[in-house]
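Could someone model zinc ion with this protein?
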Amino acid sequence: MAIPSELITATCSHCERDIPTSNIDLHYAHCSRNLQKCAICGDMIPKKHADEHYNEIHAPVDCSLCSERIERDLLSLHEGERCLRRIITCEYCEFPLPAVDLINHQEVCGNRTEYCDLCRKYVRLRERVNHDIQFHSSTADTAEPPRNIPPPGREGREGANRRPVGASPRKSFLLTIAITGIAVMLGFFFLRKPEDKQ
Ligand SMILES: [Zn+2]
Ligand SMILES: [Zn+2]
Ligand SMILES: [Zn+2]
Ligand SMILES: [Zn+2]
Ligand SMILES: [Zn+2]
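Reply:
Sure, complex below.
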């Protein structure tokens, strides 16, 4: 069985594509006459459109915000992260303003204070995030129900100190005991209805 002739290929020395051998001469004549390799992206482009190709794909462009001339590859990076005229919102007041003005604005804006209800004092906006992490995040953590404790109902009669230690670290074990203790006390508290006392 003969291999179909279109499966036998040769590489065109001009465009470096694999071309069926039966077509290679015709292809090469056309290819070398009409196409050229773009020195920037390596695409084969029609010779007569080489200038358009360069202008549309590769020529530097002017940033519409700051008018600076930017390599096209870098334009989206420039517009997104580098252009001094790009609009950013202040992290404190969320007012939109050009990047070039942001540092001075945030310097002033971050110095404003805000009242912390939990501490009952004023905190600078620039310190607010750290303030919350430092003083208020642990409150939020312990408010979460602990995950590795069985429901208090079963635990109630046996007492907290008879729990198996297991493999958990000592610190979380102690915490577990404390929380279970509270749960047990709460359990008694709610179970003891007024009529039980009599
Ligand atoms: Zn070719
Ligand atoms: Zn190109
Ligand atoms: Zn710009
Ligand atoms: Zn601001
Ligand atoms: Zn506070």
